[in-house]
Amino acid sequence: MELLLQTVIDGLLMGGLIIIIGVGFSLCFGVMHIVDFAVGEWVMLGAYAGYMMVRHFGHDAMFYLPVIFVIFSALGWVIYPVILQVVSGKRFNPAIMGLIFTFGLSITMKGGALTVWGYHIQSVPTWLTGKTLYLGPLTIPGLRVSGFFFGILVTLLLLAFLYKSRYGNVIRATAMDRDTANLLGADVRKVGAFVYSLYAGITAMSGALIGALFSVHSVMGAKYTMLAFFVVVLAGMGYVPGVIPAAIILGLLQSFVSVYIGGRFNLAALFLVMYGVLLITPKGIFRRGW
Amino acid sequence: MAWKLTVFILLLVICFIFPWIVSPLWLRIGTEVVMWAGLAQSFNIICGYTGRLDFGHGAFFGIGAYVTGMAMTLLGWPFGLGLLVSGIVSALLALAIGYPTLRLRGAYFAIATWAMGELIRQIATILDITGGAFGLQLPAVLNLPYFYYMMLLVTGLTYLTTYLLVEKARFGYKLLAIREDEDAAEMVGVNTASTKNWAFALSAFFPGVLGGIYAYWVTFIHPDSVLGGQITDVMCVMAFLGGIGSLWGPFLGAIVVQLIQRVLWVVWGEGTFYLVIIGVTICAVILFIPNGLVGLLEGTGLFSPKESVNELKKKIKW
Amino acid sequence: MILQSHDLVKSFGGVTAVDHLSLEVEKGSVFGIIGPNGSGKTTFFNLVNGVYPPTSGTITFNGRNITGLRPHQIAKLGIGRTYQVPAPFTKMTVLENVMVSTFMRSSSLKESRKVSWEILERVRLEDKGNSLVLNVTLEDRKRLELARALGTRPDLLLLDEVMAGLTPSEIKEAIELIRSLRTGELTIIVVEHIMDVILSLCDRIAVLDYGEKIAEDVPDKVVNDPNVIKAYLGERYSARN
Asked: Measured between CB atoms, which of B104, B278, B279 is closest to A278?
């Protein structure tokens, strides 16, 4: 019984962290129909940014989260026109071109990271490291709890923005029907740039958090790309609210497989489920995906 | 026109006498180039001609490697038989995977096949029969020209088949129609599901056989070496750089990418900077020469750097 | 009767696009379907064509139940169709576009090519045969739509608002073209908005409104049917008159 509870808690906490990555990724796809294959690499770069800042400027890793958000949002803003160029009509097949382009980006980022920082795994200390919460028979690492709550907080903020603010509504309208939104006065290009930079900023910021929580490694990107895909496929591509339950399911799945079947089967289970979902309900379990 | 034919025949002759005119090192390199030319073309069949991005295509190569490896070590079958079985198993697997997944379009298909590829790698690592994480050892044979000619044969077959079936026959027209507008193709009587499936199976057969040859050639295979994502990555770059959807694009791409790889190896050592070059190359190709080098040579589809930069500038100024 | 629909229903979520529609089309005739926007005309075509299956009801073609068959199977059985907004294979030539549609009934590439040129001549596109569709005008693309539908050698041709976007002189040409197709056993169903076109081409007309058939008769009778007038021009207008 204790094991079961512990497994559930671990799963939930894991899921919480994955939420932010999933939310940004889903939004990106929902608004601009761009599948960013480099999502894991944004995480990785954010993690390294956090690491570098702590190393050079001191203070705690958590301190730099907003800074990283700003930096990477700017970066996203700059890159977006290039991506837009690639997905606009004239080429062979815009959707495929977009995929391959972001794929190229991810390889460049990964190669760059490997060249600059090598294969060493770094860790980023923060005041939460080593702090553990003991709830009865359960062990809850402080880092994970903060990751979980951070994930929920950012997601709720984002959802509030999307559903309650004026610009948020503009974004959702653009996601639903680009042409009409255009006709009604939304500058679709600006919306796209805004969303992409938001996505880049959020994802990199969560990367910094993950770097502090776990570790920083040049090739960590692939894992998070997979997780992002899984969450978003399960939730439904572009259906942002679905990400929360989907990420929690993912966390629980990973946790249960690790504990009851074996860590080696983790990724296999992940892929099997994602593959199955793609075949049976490609629009996600809530059928609200694109 | 005549000089094109002369160049072609000259190249053909060089291909045939290659092992006897170069050192063993270059023979190895040449064998690898030939292999990749075949792999890139197989990727081209499903991606360039049929319009489906298969991000797990490398898995067929790995499967072929393992099937031949296991057939030879566990069942004691001869090499030739192992190769044939490799090709057939890969094709059958493609049919099995294709039947449900080819319904999916664009990004969904890419993700599904990517997931499938990773899954197959995971399975190979977990199972004991494949040697698991320890890899698989094949009997050793040292006969470099033999492997070169095997690769050449299969790659040649790949190109010949692509030429006959895809460039010249009705099958090819159907594939292009599917790539352009699948629903419209269905509407005018093309059985899109069946056509796609056969294209997928065809595109899987050749990497399967090439994988089998590779396994016997290098004598040791491992899930990460033959089933890793990097196989698909490289196939993809080669096909796009050379010219996606064209007959000779993949061949050109294979040569150029391998060349870059060797040059970087010499200049930087076994390095990771190579990845940066590859990544930037892909991005540049997509941005500026989406029809690849072949497109460049034919004069079609060079989005001139100046043009693209201007368009970019326009987009940034808001 | 070459085509019959029995009690055809198609719902999308909460919307019923086609509501218990029963129609019969006689072989060799030109049958028109008109109705306000959203009345289910294109949905009906999609059902006949196999784009999606009906929620309930059946469709019979040449005595055979074709409900639920896939589009390419229906094309093989002899139904061809054009789209309101042309959907050609853009990176192929005009000729190649038509060739693809002829594959079903030709035994070789050479034969396909020959037949395709003939069809292009028929729709007067032969001078654009080797041009890439990318470079071809809207009017020509509409002809190409027709050519492609003809390439399948259909017994029944479904024309979905072919006149949309054409100038008056182009419309005249189009009417002539469609009239010229009537030689032989070809049955045509035309969905149209423009009254003149329907009146001049069709033997019989059905009127749809909100997915239901509200009238079906010869053109003269339909035009004067009070229900039809009400559907098109609104309750108040017909009440006033």
From this structure: B104
